[in-house]
Design a protein that fits this description.
Layout (H helix, E strand, L loop, with lengths): L4 E12 L38 H13 L3 E2 L2 E2 L2 E4 L9 E4 L6 E9 L5 E13 L3 E4 L6 E4 L6 E7 L6 H18 L11 E11 L9 E6 L2 H20 L7 E6 L4 E7 L9 E2 L6 E2 L2 H9 L5 H11 L4 H8 L2 H12 L4 H9 L1 H9 L10 H12 L5 H14 L3 H7 L10 H11 L2 H8 L6 H11 L6 H14 L1
The structure holds adenosine-5'-diphosphate, magnesium ion and zinc ion (ZN).
Length: 480
């Protein structure tokens, strides 16, 4: 009889905090600068330089901890994690081992059985990021860029509470939306502002004891995470069934090739010789500060979903999509506050916005158009000043350059409200020009009116309401 195995997964998630400056110096954290332009003696590890803690990092770490239901450590400190690697100029990373800033949290996800499930968080600690190595395949040389060295990170360590790839994705999605709503990070797996290491073991279903785990690194998309979990579960199951057993090791997932290989085993695991960082004073967090940070918490996605359902007549799917990105929710709420009909505002965000985002490769957090301009565009359509196809053109200009729709319509002469009687005159002219169509129409071929519609639209340069055109043509034909 074949045995039934269960997968056990715990995650270590690194999130880059979006403070303006680095964790221990005043250098910029901006991404994409020329190599080694955001560096100073502190973040390039010069002897004699001294780190000074950026308070904003602690602020954001506490905000995340509170949102993830953690206890905040009132008396916290930093430790040195010693290791040698060329992207780590000090030869140690400043991190937190003994007194992490947050502990004992949890988040609620939908479990595999469809019921709410709590995933417990063991701790969240603050640390600094390392630099980046750049390998030049042409010359065979390797360069180091220290712009990322000292960028603040939090590491969120879960308990081994997840049982499938779906639960892992639900957990990561929950972290992402919570931290994004807090404005503490954009949490993009593909850009490295969120990085997940998957610890996975298997055990016979019904047993208590955990099996030996592996840790998989280099997972930069939900797809890679899912495939890696499936692959690793199958690999460990084979190893257990064959009697070979699982080796505790760190593995690297190659998503292109769809397989993983060992990076280092427990035997060559490093001894980091942790010790308290003597250059940094302990961090004392007052209850007042914790309360103040708690009071700044925004309305999170779950609460928003419930409120949208109660207040607006939107489908669950639309609510899910709009609240899935804080920026979309902000634009939606802003447009509604400016008087836009919620359903119409949602529709622009669901259809044209998504289309243009795809076309231009724009992420939601990079959308620049203002809610007021979306509301104003919706108003122009409502008042029949522009028809729906002109509205799409105007929206594209709003999307790209945040133009003022009213001014844009005026400037480009797009209003349907042209000279009085222009449409009536165009209809009359078009009917006059189409004796054949009139004859056909009189003979009962109502479709013949279509040719006249085309003439009117051309005459009006598309700036008219098709329904109104149809109505006027029928009226005119009835007179003939
Ligand atoms: P270490 O200190 O060796 O990194 P931790 O206890 O910090 O180990 O655990 C690291 C991560 O591995 C945590 O997210 C934890 O939930 C997870 N983990 C621990 N044991 C197991 C296991 N047997 N199976 C799956 N995940 C595990
Ligand atoms: Mg660990
Ligand atoms: Zn610096």
């Amino acid at each position: 009889m074949s045995k039934d195995f269960e997968t056990v997964i715990g995650l270590e998630v690194h999130v880059e905090l979006n403070t303006k400056t680095k964790i221990f110096c005043g250098c910029s954290t901006a991404f994409g600068g020329a190599p080694n332009t955001h560096v100073c003696p502190v973040c390039s590890g010069m002897p004699g330089s001294l780190p000074v803690l950026n308070k904003e990092v602690v602020h954001k770490a506490i905000a995340v901890g509170l949102a993830l239901n953690c206890d905040i450590t009132r008396n916290s400190k930093f430790d040195r994690k010693n290791y040698f690697y060329p992207d780590n100029p000090q030869n140690y990373q400043i991190s937190q081992l003994y007194y992490p800033i947050c502990r004992n949290g949890w988040v609620e996800i939908t479990g595999d059985d469809g019921n709410p499930k709590k995933v417990r968080i063991h701790e969240i600690h603050m640390e600094e990021d390392a630099g980046k190595l750049i390998h030049d395949n042409f010359t065979g040389e390797t360069y180091v860029d220290l712009n990322r060295s000292g960028v603040p990170l939090i590491e969120i360590v879960s308990e081994p509470d997840m049982r499938s790839a779906d639960e892992v994705v639900a957990y990561l999605e929950k972290l992402r939306e919570t931290i994004q709503y807090l404005g503490a990070s954009d949490c993009k797996l593909n850009e490295g502002s969120m990085r997940a290491d998957v610890n996975l073991s298997i055990r016979e279903r019904g047993t208590e004891e955990f099996g030996t785990r592996t840790e998989s690194k280099n997972l930069n998309s939900f797809r890679a995470i899912k495939r890696c979990i499936e692959h690793e579960t199958a690999r460990q199951t084979d190893a257990v069934v064959s009697g070979e057993g699982v080796t505790q090791e760190t593995r690297r997932w190659d998503d292109e090739k769809g397989y993983s290989y060992p990076m280092r085993s427990k035997e060559d695991a490093q001894d980091y010789r942790y010790f308290p960082d003597p250059d940094l004073v302990p961090i004392l967090v007052s209850q007042e500060w914790i309360d103040e940070i708690a009071s700044e918490a925004p309305e999170f996605r779950d609460a928003k979903k419930i409120r949208y359902k109660e207040e607006y007549d939107l489908s669950d799917y639309d609510i899910d999509q709009i609240t899935g990105e804080k920026r979309l929710a902000d634009i939606f709420e802003g447009a509604v506050a400016e008087g836009a009909d919620p359903k119409k505002a949602a529709n622009w965000l669901m259809v044209e916005t998504q289309r243009l985002m795809k076309e231009t490769g724009t992420d939601a957090d990079k959308l620049t158009f203002s809610p007021a301009h979306l509301a104003s565009l919706i108003g122009l359509v409502d008042r029949k000043e522009i028809n729906s196809s002109v509205a799409k053109t105007v929206f594209e200009a709003v999307f790209r350059e945040d133009v003022d729709p009213e001014a844009y319509v005026k400037e480009h002469d797009l209003s349907m409200k042209g000279a009085d009687g222009a449409l009536e005159a165009a209809v009359k002219k078009a009917v006059d020009m189409s004796p054949k169509a009139v004859e056909d129409w009189k003979a009962g071929k109502t479709k013949a009116a279509g040719a006249i519609v085309g003439l009117v639209m051309r005459e009006m340069k598309g700036k008219c309401d098709p329904a109104e055109v149809n109505r006027l043509i029928s009226e005119e034909l009835a007179k003939r």
